[in-house]
TrEMBL record, chain A:
<dbReference type="GO" id="GO:0005829">
    <property type="term" value="C:cytosol"/>
</dbReference>
<dbReference type="GO" id="GO:0005851">
    <property type="term" value="C:eukaryotic translation initiation factor 2B complex"/>
</dbReference>
<comment type="function">
    <text>Acts as a component of the translation initiation factor 2B (eIF2B) complex, which catalyzes the exchange of GDP for GTP on eukaryotic initiation factor 2 (eIF2) gamma subunit. Its guanine nucleotide exchange factor activity is repressed when bound to eIF2 complex phosphorylated on the alpha subunit, thereby limiting the amount of methionyl-initiator methionine tRNA available to the ribosome and consequently global translation is repressed.</text>
</comment>
<dbReference type="InterPro" id="IPR037171">
    <property type="entry name" value="NagB/RpiA_transferase-like"/>
</dbReference>
<dbReference type="Pfam" id="PF01008">
    <property type="entry name" value="IF-2B"/>
</dbReference>
<keyword id="KW-0648">Protein biosynthesis</keyword>
<comment type="subunit">
    <text>Component of the translation initiation factor 2B (eIF2B) complex which is a heterodecamer of two sets of five different subunits: alpha, beta, gamma, delta and epsilon. Subunits alpha, beta and delta comprise a regulatory subcomplex and subunits epsilon and gamma comprise a catalytic subcomplex. Within the complex, the hexameric regulatory complex resides at the center, with the two heterodimeric catalytic subcomplexes bound on opposite sides.</text>
</comment>
<dbReference type="InterPro" id="IPR042529">
    <property type="entry name" value="IF_2B-like_C"/>
</dbReference>
<dbReference type="GO" id="GO:0005085">
    <property type="term" value="F:guanyl-nucleotide exchange factor activity"/>
</dbReference>
TrEMBL record, chain B:
<dbReference type="InterPro" id="IPR037171">
    <property type="entry name" value="NagB/RpiA_transferase-like"/>
</dbReference>
<dbReference type="GO" id="GO:0048513">
    <property type="term" value="P:animal organ development"/>
</dbReference>
<feature type="compositionally biased region" description="Basic residues">
    <location>
        <begin position="39"/>
        <end position="50"/>
    </location>
</feature>
<feature type="compositionally biased region" description="Basic and acidic residues">
    <location>
        <begin position="102"/>
        <end position="131"/>
    </location>
</feature>
<keyword id="KW-0648">Protein biosynthesis</keyword>
<feature type="compositionally biased region" description="Basic and acidic residues">
    <location>
        <begin position="51"/>
        <end position="67"/>
    </location>
</feature>
<keyword id="KW-0963">Cytoplasm</keyword>
<dbReference type="InterPro" id="IPR000649">
    <property type="entry name" value="IF-2B-related"/>
</dbReference>
<dbReference type="GO" id="GO:0003743">
    <property type="term" value="F:translation initiation factor activity"/>
</dbReference>
């Protein structure tokens, strides 16, 4: 399919050019490009092609955010009256709405940062997990607000993403310490609050994030420390896992592993699920939400 | 001049009555009702003083007093009048031909005046009672056309230990049989029977009814039945004997019986179908609630029917109207029950994976349907059926599942903690979902949810959206149902130990039917709208209200 080539190229180039862009945003940008170049004759054909495109994108990058972002994009552009007799007019409307959606979500990280940094008090000790661009933005805003705080980052094996985060924080002149994943229980009594990002926010109000987040949440609950999650609204996904086993396999492992490996039981999952009972608050561009309010917002977004 | 005197004497006697009422009400501590009665009287007096030259209303009042009920219970008729405005209006309509010789205004103008008065009283009362009372009645007592929120009172069926409320209920049933007649004059001794309680009631639950199955309400109805339609009598008997049990079954049976009623209904002359049919249904509903208290699903179904009936345009012909109503009922059953269960099965099957061990409790038609569908879709799982006395409904569920070929295990609820380590998921049905996220279901359900939580087993509740109700309840005492206590008596090896339980003064047998489960124990609720957490029930209610 020619379309798949058209998709791969912008996606890869965007991610390489601008590592600051969330993978979901890059995916949506490619979808928009795809929409502009699509040749189908009917709206139904258009939708089918879009769905296939989203599937292709998921095969490339199996994160939850790409799947949720793609679905929301599709819903947003078609949630308008497409009663025009001319297909090209309909397409123009959809493209317009697509640009609007893209603009909105590009600004969402800034909104989240603005909301959350006020919860960081002067002299606070913050614990975070792995590397999240949203958490980085929050800490950046807090530092710009002349607040003094120190950050502990977990190493986050197997890809050592925590070291990357520590480097970025060091560049912002924020005092940072890297701790082992196994040292979360040890360090918990020293910290004041825990802030993590999310790859996906599920219907129950729980989050899907890098493996190790669930442990951190359980520890923080045991020590009565607030556990905050920062996520943009395009990460809201229509999943409802009951426990760790209930998360679909296509999110747990990287895309290339899913394709090549036969026995997934030998592979290590990259994400885990944190239930809503362990989360204090979620900071999104829709506002500051409790986990039970997430379902409310999801109903509004999807229904 | 003579008429003036009667008016003033009438006002004086009214004032005396009012004082009696106030003293009586004070003694019983019914603050709000007293206040409202006072306001009622004041406004009435105001109206009368404004129309001093008009003799119609006061004399009509006197007529009404003598004709229908004795004077002291006049306030009793006034306050229920707020809840069911068409009834006194129709009563006055029936009396107006009798009082035809009075040189008063026309009947329509008088009716309009009374309605205006009641509207103003209702508006002033609504302004005072903002927060509202504890629970709403599951039997809708407000007129269907009313858009303002009605004052919520404690329903009569949870005030059994209050003699005033009981008397009110008896009067209401009596009044209903007369209003059911309309203009016809063959008022026999037939009335909607008031069932009497049986046996010693445990004091915590003395505010609820407790009936005996050996004493069906139909025994007190003489033949021929002129007030209650025979299909309703049959339905009531089936409810009270437990032949039809289960939330969905009861609602569907109710709707079918109503279809029959509508089919056999004929509009009396000078009456509108949309108003008269609703009045005809009220004594039926009272009778059914005497047989067995209405469930939340039945309450919602009745609300829907009453709304549909009152929305029938007045120029519609009778046959056409009947056809519309039949179609409405059919589509309600189809959408809310049959199609909803299909949608719920679709979502639920996603949650059933191969190798699962699923625990179910009692017999829920919806959960059985889900399991049968999953088995047909080649999912590999086995089921553990938990059962409890005295109903032993699990045996019915076991029968249905084994017939399909599903591997089942059967335990009693006392073995629950023994069996739970093997279980991977718990599927529960619900009788109703309350507005604060609590799940009202068969007694024993909250026990299962509690123990499952302790073992970290996910609990899934399956419930159609038509069972969502706006009641709020945090415990199982306030509003429940007491079944026949004799069911708990068991004969083993020829010996019945509890045979003479009534003779032992300090012994009470408690046969509870429902209990409420807090939302912390429930992980997921599967409805026809999708999978939602238990705390999102008010969101669904809000969305539904917006749709309507």
């Amino acid at each position: 399919m020619n379309e798949s080539i058209i998709l791969f190229i912008p996606l890869c180039s965007q991610i390489r050019e601008d590592p600051d862009v969330a993978s979901a945003v890059a995916a949506i940008r490619s979808l928009l490009e795809f929409l502009k170049r699509d040749q189908s004759e009917t709206i139904l054909g258009l939708r089918e092609n879009m769905t296939k495109a989203i599937q292709r994108l998921e095969e490339t990058d199996s994160s939850v955010a790409v799947s949720s972002g793609g679905e929301l994009f599709l819903r947003f552009i078609s949630l308008t009256s497409l009663e025009h007799p001319d297909l090209s007019q309909c397409k123009n409307v959809m493209i317009e709405r697509g640009e609007l959606f893209l603009k909105k979500i590009s600004l969402s990280r800034g909104k989240v940062g603005k909301l959350c940094h006020t919860f960081i008090k002067d002299g606070a000790k913050i614990l975070t997990h792995s590397s999240s661009r949203v958490v980085l933005k929050v800490l950046e805003n807090a530092a710009a607000d002349n607040k003094r705080f120190t950050v502990y980052v977990t190493e986050s094996q197997p890809d050592s993403a925590g070291k990357l985060m520590a480097q970025k924080l060091h560049n912002l002149n924020i005092p940072v310490t890297v701790v082992l994943d196994a040292a979360v229980g040890y360090i918990m009594e020293k910290v004041d609050l825990v802030i993590v990002g999310a790859e996906g926010v599920v219907e129950s109000g729980g989050v899907i994030n890098k493996i190790g987040t669930y442990q951190m949440a359980v520890c923080s609950k045991a020590h009565n420390k607030p556990f905050y999650v920062v996520a943009e609204s395009f990460k809201f996904v229509r999943l409802y896992p009951l426990n760790q086993q209930d998360v679909p396999d296509r999110f747990k492992y990287k895309a290339d592993i899913l394709k090549t490996v036969k026995d997934l039981n030998q592979e290590h999952p990259m994400i885990d699920y944190t239930p809503p009972s362990l989360i204090t608050l979620l900071f999104t561009d829709l506002g500051v939400l409790t986990p039970s309010a997430v379902s409310d917002e999801l109903i509004k977004l999807y229904l | 001049m003579g008429e003036r005197l009667t008016t003033s004497t009438l006002l004086v006697t009214e004032e005396d009555e009012k004082k009696h009422e106030i003293i009586r009400a004070k003694g019983e501590g019914k603050e709000l009702t007293k206040e409202e009665k006072q306001r009622l009287r004041k406004e009435k007096k105001q109206h009368k003083k404004n129309k001093k030259d008009d003799r119609g209303p006061p004399e009509k009042e006197k007529e009404k007093e003598k004709a229908s009920v004795p004077a002291p219970s006049k306030p009793a008729t006034q306050s229920p009048a707020h809840k069911a405005a068409p009834v006194p209006v129709n009563a006055s309509a029936s009396e107006s031909p009798v009082a035809a010789e009075k040189p008063a205004k026309s009947k329509a103008e008088l009716r309009a005046e009374r309605r205006a008065r009641q509207d103003s009283e209702r508006a002033s009362k609504q302004g005072k009672k903002e927060g509202g009372q504890q629970s709403t009645s599951s039997k809708p007592k407000a007129t269907p056309n009313e858009l303002q929120p009605v004052v919520k009172r404690l329903p009569d069926h949870v005030q059994v230990d209050d003699p005033v409320a009981l008397k009110k209920l008896a009067k209401k049933l009596e009044r209903q049989q007369k209003s059911g007649q309309g203009c016809s004059l063959n008022i026999t001794g037939v009335k909607v029977p008031l069932r009497s309680d049986y046996g010693y009631k445990v004091s915590l639950f003395s505010h609820l009814h407790q009936y005996s199955r050996k004493n069906p309400p139909t025994q007190q109805i003489s033949i021929p039945v002129t007030v209650i339609h025979p299909s309703i009598v049959r339905l009531g008997l089936q409810y009270s004997q437990g032949i039809i049990a289960g939330s969905n079954a009861r609602s569907v049976a109710l709707l079918h019986a109503f279809k029959q009623v509508i089919q056999d209904y004929s509009t009396p002359p000078n009456e509108e179908l949309s108003r008269d049919l609703v009045n005809k249904l009220s004594p039926y509903i009272s009778f059914l609630s005497q047989c067995r208290p209405l469930s939340a699903s039945m309450g919602n179904a009745i609300k829907y029917i009453k709304k549909e009936i009152s929305n029938i345009p007045s120029q519609c012909k009778e046959e056409e109207a009947k056809r519309i109503l039949q179609e409405c009922i059919d589509s309600y059953i189809n959408e809310k029950i049959i199609l909803a269960s299909e949608a719920i099965s679709k979502y639920a099957i996603e949650k059933i994976s191969d190798g699962d061990v699923i625990l179910v409790y009692g017999c829920s038609s919806l959960v059985n349907h889900i399991l049968c569908e999953a088995f047909e879709k080649q999912r590999k799982f086995r089921v553990i059926v938990v059962d409890s006395r005295p109903r032993l409904e699990g045996r019915e569920a076991l029968r249905r599942l084994v017939k399909k070929g599903i591997r089942c295990t059967y335990v009693l609820i006392s073995a629950l903690s023994y069996i739970l380590p093997e279980v991977s998921k718990v599927f529960l049905g619900a009788h109703a979902l309350l507005a604060n996220g609590y799940v009202m279901s068969r007694v024993g359900t909250s026990q299962i949810a509690l123990v499952a939580k302790a073992y970290n087993v996910p609990v899934l509740v399956c419930c159609e959206t038509y069972k969502f109700c706006e009641r709020v309840q945090t415990d199982s005492f306030v509003s429940n149902e007491l079944d026949d206590p004799d069911d708990l008596i068991v004969t083993r090896n020829g010996k019945t130990h509890l045979e003479n339980w009534q003779t032992v003064k300090s012994l009470g047998l408690l046969n509870l039917v429902y209990d409420v489960t807090p939302p912390d124990f429930v992980d997921l609720v599967i409805t026809d709208l999708g999978m939602i957490p238990c705390t999102s029930v008010p969101v669904v209610l809000r969305v539904k209200n917006v749709d309507q």
